[in-house]
Amino acid sequence: MRRRQFFGLLGGVAAWPVVAHAQRPAGGDIPRIGAIFGSQSENNTEFRNGLREAGYVDSENILIEERLHGSAVERADEFVREFVALKCKVIFAGTPYAIRAATKATSTVPIVGVDLESDPVASGLVKSVARPGGNFTGFFLDIPDLGGKQIELLMEAIRQISRIAVVWDETIGEVQFHAAEAAPRPPGVELLSLPIRRVEDFSTALERAVQARAQGLILLSSPMIFLQRARIASLALQARMPTVSLFTVFPTVGGLMAYGPNFPLLYRQAASYVGRILAGANPGDLPIQRPTKFELVINLRTAKALNIEMAPTLLARADEVIE
Fold first, then answer.
1. With 160 labelled, which of 75, 93, 138, 254 sits at a CA distance of 20 to 30 A?
2. What is the per-residue pLDDT across 87-103, written as a single tens digit (0 to 9) for each?
3. Is 300 helix (H, G, I), strand (E, B) or coil?
4. Residues 289, 132: contact at Cβ < 8 Å?
């Protein structure tokens, strides 16, 4: 049951003006948008919905060149080269791999990115959050205390927990893992680091968590983890491992809990930046945006399968309970 839904972004994204009737360019010169995603999901759909809200419809007044890199993240470089050759007006990079490829390939084509793992200033992508400068802007998670919140939720769901395993993608997730590692937690609560690099590493990571007698599992953000969410949820259930993710769709495929932003809406809002750039805005003048509101989703069926009696106070705070 859906209890409440909210999402806010710094900078007043919800109040941005909408281009209600973007016209088809004269002479049939329809601008192309190159868009790279990790996989096909509701994020892709909401990106297109966001463009439509801004007045841009595929095959009418824009052409969307959409590509999926899946687990072959090196293909992002190939896609960006293709977009540059096609003279795309804007490149949308929906994963950190795509952002790396795009910013490496061009310093002139405007780029809008979504990255849930990096610090845009520390990584050198932008000069500042308020005024990025250059040809790149985007939407970043970069919330240091999110890992601490996930630890709190596991401790509230599982009484007397003392060992929590953390699965993280070591190809892009080091900053995120160290933030979780540094998050305050009660004395005696140990974190077990389970870095992965490939899809095949998930099974081994779960086996290590079980062998180490971890009582709960945190999944940090990664396009690979998002792509494999259903498989991970199934493996965790088989291992009888309570799991929390920041992907709010995770409980819908059998995971126990999720706490994070509304990601489809994040991609929808990113599309509005693409629309603004098509209308003449400079990406260097568009501030980096971060989600400020988060949703708690709990799968009560999974809790019952794991013989976990969720605290009434925790259920009362949930934005969605799957029964």
1. 254
2. 999 999 999 999 999 99
3. helix
4. no
